[in-house]
Amino acid sequence: MVTQRQLEEREMRRQRILQGALRVYQRDGIEKATMDGIAKEAGFGKATLYYYFESKEEIFVELLRSGWEQIWESVESILEVPGTPRTQFAAILKSLAHRISRDPAFYGFLFQAPTQLTGLPAERQTWRKHQNRMYGVLRGLLEDGIAQEEFPRVDSELLLRAIGGLFHGLFFLGTGGQDITDENMDLFLDNLFSGSSVAMETES
Amino acid sequence: MVTQRQLEEREMRRQRILQGALRVYQRDGIEKATMDGIAKEAGFGKATLYYYFESKEEIFVELLRSGWEQIWESVESILEVPGTPRTQFAAILKSLAHRISRDPAFYGFLFQAPTQLTGLPAERQTWRKHQNRMYGVLRGLLEDGIAQEEFPRVDSELLLRAIGGLFHGLFFLGTGGQDITDENMDLFLDNLFSGSSVAMETES
DNA sequence: GTAATTTTCGAATTGACAGTCGGAAAGTAG
DNA sequence: CTACTTTCCGACTGTCAATTCGAAAATTAC
Hints:
The structure is a homodimer.
Chain A: H1 4-32, H2 35-42, H3 46-52, H4 56-79, H5 85-102, H6 104-116, H7 128-147, H8 156-171, H9 182-192
Helix pairs in contact in A: 1-2, 1-4, 1-6, 2-3, 4-5, 4-6, 4-7, 5-6, 5-7, 5-9, 7-8
Chain A binds a DNA duplex through residues 1-3, 6, 10, 13, 34-36, 39, 44-48, 50-51, 55-56.
């Protein structure tokens, strides 16, 4: 028989292992991150990790899944606030920017690790569900915004890739640069959307 | 005694190995790329690779070095044509875009592999010389362009990161999207620079 | 208490892979 | 043809790291 407390403690230990894995990832990268390193960082023996997770891969997949789930939930709550495609799109980017500036290491992991986890069967990429939903929403907002002349009239897929890249560049490329501020973020969004007629809400 | 022909044949075999390594990299990623795989792809026995290269690392470093050298040379030749910071900057991006569309796999490697080759001592990162020169030129052009009001008045380092990211997004993010056309490239450059006063040359 | 269950982990085991070795094959010179 | 150089490679070695094993320690139930 397992009590509620036991379940909670179990869950806390899982979280402790996940946090240790994240720190090792930051220090060593995903390929160099070893189970020995994670075990030491989390304060368990190596074999104990296998009591809580199936494999090294499962640890990183779980980090991705829960992270993208969080992102998706925040996107969902933004969509509940009425607005034009453009204001909603900008609100999502600003919310993301805000989250990233709070915890750059974790979001760096969320955005970069998927490209480094090669050769996973699709059904194991459990974070993809939420990731795709978010990109789907963004693409939809862009398409609506283009239809309503709020955005430049270009292929929405390319526009999404461009904006995604720009975002990625601002936050993750370049090793030691200063963090981006809210003001700069607004400046870039303004600039990006400068061709259209509707003014953006850039006050925080 | 070695004849000229022998030297040329040796060089061709080196190239064949490099090309094989590139194909394996595309298929498996840099960490999963094994010497056995490269040997098979290039049509040699594994031990023969070590007759031509010191190590696996040297193979990939050499691919990067020669690739960035080519890029740098094309940038240099663009700089010899007189123009404003803005036209030169745009010309460099267009030239890069053109190269990338000719050989996406190779340029994907040139832009992505450096972030995956971790823990190399600085002196072994032989491609950095040309890479830094190119970014230095771009940053300089942005700074001059900002001073001359050809670009929006923001921190040049952030602008470079943003543009670099945008570029990266257009060409490398998103898995199976269609290739970007010259027209779309022009459209994006126009849009990017829309805040300023000077019209761009977008005819090819 | 002590039997049952849960949690822990050091010590093997296993598989993958970079790099080496010793010699064979192929090519060249005279 | 023979001596010499260049090129090639299958089999082996050593290392590193994921995963498993078997049992000990800690906790819980009665």
